[in-house]
Backbone:
């Protein structure tokens, strides 16, 4: 069976700085008309910066929608036209004050495929050096170093609640065990 | 330092069936006024239904925002006032035609804490029996069984792109290895 839902028309309902929203008319696989609410997002990256002795650099920051200070790996939105690898290197500098020679891809994460177009490109990177941070206007972050083995436990037991961070920590831990990073 | 962003006022900009959107006036930690775009979502659940011989029941379904058929564990939105455990049991029946005695919690996942209030409650469950499926109007899903060990590889290598699914598969695989599920 073909599950494809066919696009008919798009009604733009909200245009923001971070995302926009449309309500689309579609045709279901059974031929019936229906509507889909969609958050349009340009995508993001998340990077796991690793020291030579396998400690990860995280950031703590307040997340307004959750009303919580959260522990996350450095991450950020892809600017229009930007290569995700460049976003990763930029966010590493801006949020964590860290540089790297190479970002190794660790898959692409779909956080909310039911209603959002967002894709998050995951990377692991050996830390090359340090530099001054350069946070976005209104962005307040604190850098925290956690040994990879401890972070792996926190991803498994749910202490790390941020989805992209937990997933990337587990993939990086496996890669390090297998000598791939 | 206190990173808290203080709520000032809320401007409702979109009211949908799945989510709503507001633009809130806030005060940053440095005292400056700013705005936050927020997707308001009632939360969701995701369940890993496991057979006695450690095979997982997945669903394949078309995700309109991604324009892809995706492999996911059964999941769905929490109805207002509904206990997440009840949502999990309901979705297991509706999407997969499976019943269970008990849902074991595997943490709470924040898929997009930067701009959405959504929390996803993760559960693992031993399959108790089968029953007719009862999909939502316009929901077309196909059940697929995959051995846990194979699913774990697919979560690690990025073949599973759905964030909640990948995370839950890895937590369940560890729990089964340790005799906790």
Residues:
């Amino acid at each position: 069976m073909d599950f494809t839902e066919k696009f008919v028309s798009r009604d733009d309902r909200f245009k923001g700085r971070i995302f926009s929203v449309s309500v689309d008319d579609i045709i279901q696989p059974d031929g019936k008309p229906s509507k889909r609410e969609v958050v349009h997002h340009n995508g993001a990256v998340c990077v796991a910066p690793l020291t030579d002795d396998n400690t990860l650099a995280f950031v703590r920051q307040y997340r307004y929608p959750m009303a919580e200070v959260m522990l996350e790996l450095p991450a950020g939105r892809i600017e229009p036209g930007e290569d995700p690898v460049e976003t990763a290197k930029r966010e590493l500098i801006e949020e964590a004050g860290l540089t790297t020679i190479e970002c190794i891809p660790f898959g692409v994460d779909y956080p909310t495929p039911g209603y959002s177009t967002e894709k998050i490109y995951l990377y692991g990177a050996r830390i090359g050096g340090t530099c001054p941070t350069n946070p976005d206007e209104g962005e307040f972050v604190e850098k925290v170093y956690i040994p990879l083995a401890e972070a792996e436990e926190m991803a498994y037991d749910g202490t790390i609640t941020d989805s992209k961070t937990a997933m990337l920590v587990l993939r990086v831990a496996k890669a390090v065990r297998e000598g791939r990073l």
